[in-house]
Amino acid sequence: MTCHGLSPFDRLVLALGLAFLYLPMLILVLYSFNASRLVTVWGGFSLTWYKALAADRQLIEAAVLSLEVAAASATLATLVATLSAIVLTRHRRNAAHSLLELTSSAPLVLPEIILGLAFLLLFVALDIPRGFVTVTIAHASIGAAFAGIVIRSRLARFDQRLEEAASDLGCPPWKVFVVITLPLNLPAIIAAWLLAFTLSLDDLVVASFTTGPGATTLPMRIYSSVRLGVSPEINAVSTIMIAAVALVLLFSWRLAASARPDGNDKP
């Protein structure tokens, strides 16, 4: 690497890496505006498939259901992860502490197909009808493990003297948590919620085991459609999701930039 920037080789590797990551998505976005039904043949620019998507009730219902499941499971996962993170970072190690740490981290290493089968057997044994509730519980259980890593890393670096000072001044424990602990750890909690939301929205394997009639998520709908051939409507809904993620990232970047003391947009 040169002193004034990247070497030609580094630039080539960077360009190839970016192309590997983003070229498939660019092609997908391009062909979502294809007038031809054949995804490999360009037939001109058209919004036909976005109009068809607006009329596809099953695909829209699957998208709405996925958003509802993701929001509910992410909220439940973040709540559980926050409480378990507080216990794991604030209390001394013992047998119960080690057991909680082991069980909360197990979904990180277990294959999704094993988790999906385990949840299926559990719901069948408890005679719980599979649907929105079972998918939400399964996704929340998995999301809590990932959200817990984020929150625990923040709580491990949190200065507990701030809480002690508030307690010495007569602040009750619940108020210390609401006024001191929660606001100062809110960025990590929001990040954990977004991570759990993304994992739920993207999941196919676990949802396939835990869902039931009338509760088909968007990944399941897309997978069942792709098996019969890639439809341009799938390109359209994928483009909308990419645009939504891009807008969220842009908003987050602008929000983080405005929060810097110097107001500089550069990292």
Please specify the SSE layout and strand pairing:
Layout lengths: L7 H24 L16 H8 L1 H34 L4 H15 L2 H14 L6 H25 L4 H8 L4 H12 L1 H17 L2 H6 L7 H9 L5 H28 L8
Helix pairs in contact: 1-12, 2-12, 3-4, 3-6, 3-9, 3-11, 4-6, 6-9, 7-8
Please tell me about this protein's structure:
Residues 63-252 form the ABC transmembrane type-1 domain. Keywords: Cell membrane, Membrane, Transmembrane, Transmembrane helix, Transport. It is found in: Cell membrane. The chain is mainly alpha-helical and 267 residues long. It has a domain at 60-231: MetI-like (MetI-like fold, Orthogonal Bundle), CATH 1.10.3720. 75% of the residues lie in helices and 0% in strands. It contains twelve helices and no strands. It has helices at residues 8-31, 48-55, 57-90, 95-109, 112-125, 132-156, 161-168, 173-184, 186-202, 205-210, 218-226, 232-259. The longest helix has 34 residues, at 57-90. It is globular. The mean pLDDT is 83.
CATH hierarchy, class of the domain at 60-231: Mainly Alpha
Oligomeric grouping of the chains: single chain
Give the N-to-C terminal Cα separation.
21 Å
Net shape: globular
Percentage of residues assigned to helices:
over 70%
Largest sheet: none
Looking at the structure, the CATH topology of the domain at 60-231 is: MetI-like fold
- Work out the strand percent: under 5%
Total count of helical runs of at least 4 residues: 12
User: Runs with pLDDT <50, length 5+?
Assistant: none
> What are the secondary-structure elements, in order, as H or E?
HHHHHHHHHHHH
Subcellular location: Cell membrane
Main location: membrane
Transmembrane segments: 12-33, 69-88, 108-126, 132-155, 176-196, 234-256
Pfam family, one: BPD_transp_1
